[in-house]
């Protein structure tokens, strides 16, 4: 079973939330710092709101914080671009009979909008939302829940994610991990390369590997 993250892996959309966070903080005279980024990156909105309220010492409720974020992000997921090589790789995997699903911290409404707009929904059997489970991708519980929902053993799963923390969570759940480069997590590239089973700059690299191995008649991974 292949599990794909959405933001930063299937779609070039991490920048949406960076812009939202910067605007949200600017409105309150606060700076966007690495410490803040570490607290909210790839975290479901309800947990990100709790962190933001405490970290920034805000008087607003978590519900009001989330409502403002949603307002700032409105319409953005109707226009997010697909990342290079993604469509061709999904098509290749589908033709090979591979089972695929999405596991994401993205807002369900945003995820469905992006997948539908880009015509990617047809490739996936299901979508597991960290937000609906109240779990973070940095924890193995989320990945174990995704495997259980898909009816597969964790050790038979490979995940594709741009976040080191998410890859660590999946590895703790006994899954194989493929790190995917995204500029949002560029500072983690060296550590990702040393940690992940495979690390790619683009899905186009996997297409090249498949083409080369197909011509030589050898088996293909992942």
What does this structure look like?
With 222 residues, the chain is of the alpha/beta class. 49% of the residues lie in helices and 10% in strands. It has eleven helices and six strands. The chain has helices spanning 14-26, 34-40, 45-55, 62-73, 86-95, 108-118, 130-133, 140-150, 164-172, 189-195, 204-216, and strands at 2-4, 100-104, 127-129, 158-161, 176-180, 198-200. It has a six-stranded parallel beta sheet with strand order 3-2-1-4-5-6. Strand 4, helix 9 (164-172) and strand 5 (176-180) form a beta-alpha-beta unit. The longest helix has 13 residues, at 14-26. It starts with a strand and ends in a 6-residue tail after the last helix. The relative contact order is 0.16.
Give the neighbour order of strands across the main sheet. Answer: 3-2-1-4-5-6
Tell me the quaternary state.
Answer: single chain
SSE order: EHHHHHEHEHHEHEHEH
Distance between the termini: 11 Å
Approximately how much beta-strand content do the residues carry? Answer: 5-15%
Structural class, from secondary structure content? alpha/beta
Note the main sheet. Answer: 6 strands, parallel
Strand count? 6
Can you tell me the residue ranges where pLDDT is under 50 for at least 5 consecutive residues?
none
Mean pLDDT: 91
Query: How helix-rich are the residues, as a percent range?
Result: 40-55%
Number of helices: 11
Global outline: globular
What is the radius of gyration computed over CA atoms, rounded to a whole number of angstroms?
18 Å
Write the layout of secondary structure elements.
Blueprint: E1 2-4, H1 14-26, H2 34-40, H3 45-55, H4 62-73, H5 86-95, E2 100-104, H6 108-118, E3 127-129, H7 130-133, H8 140-150, E4 158-161, H9 164-172, E5 176-180, H10 189-195, E6 198-200, H11 204-216
Parallel strand pairs: 1-2, 1-4, 2-3, 4-5, 5-6
């Amino acid at each position: 079973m292949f599990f794909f993250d959405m933001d930063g892996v299937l779609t070039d959309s991490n920048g949406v939330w960076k812009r939202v966070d910067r605007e949200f903080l600017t409105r309150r005279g606060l700076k966007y710092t690495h410490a803040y980024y570490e607290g909210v990156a790839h975290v479901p909105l309800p947990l990100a709101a709790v962190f933001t309220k405490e970290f920034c010492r805000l008087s607003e409720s978590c519900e009001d914080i989330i409502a403002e974020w949603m307002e700032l992000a409105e319409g953005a997921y109707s226009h997010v671009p697909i990342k290079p090589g993604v469509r061709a790789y999904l098509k290749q995997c589908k033709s090979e009979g591979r089972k695929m699903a999405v596991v994401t911290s993205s807002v369900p409404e945003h995820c469905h909008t992006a997948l539908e707009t880009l015509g990617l929904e047809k490739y996936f059997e299901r979508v597991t939302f960290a937000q609906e489970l109240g779990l973070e991708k940095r924890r193995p519980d989320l990945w174990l829940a995704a495997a259980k929902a898909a009816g597969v053993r964790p050790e038979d799963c490979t995940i594709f994610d741009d976040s080191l923390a998410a890859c660590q969570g999946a590895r703790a759940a006994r899954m194989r991990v493929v790190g995917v480069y995204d500029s949002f997590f560029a500072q983690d590239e060296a550590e990702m390369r040393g940690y992940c089973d495979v690390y790619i700059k683009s899905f186009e690299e996997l297409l090249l590997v498949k083409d080369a191995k197909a011509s030589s008649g050898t088996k293909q991974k992942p």
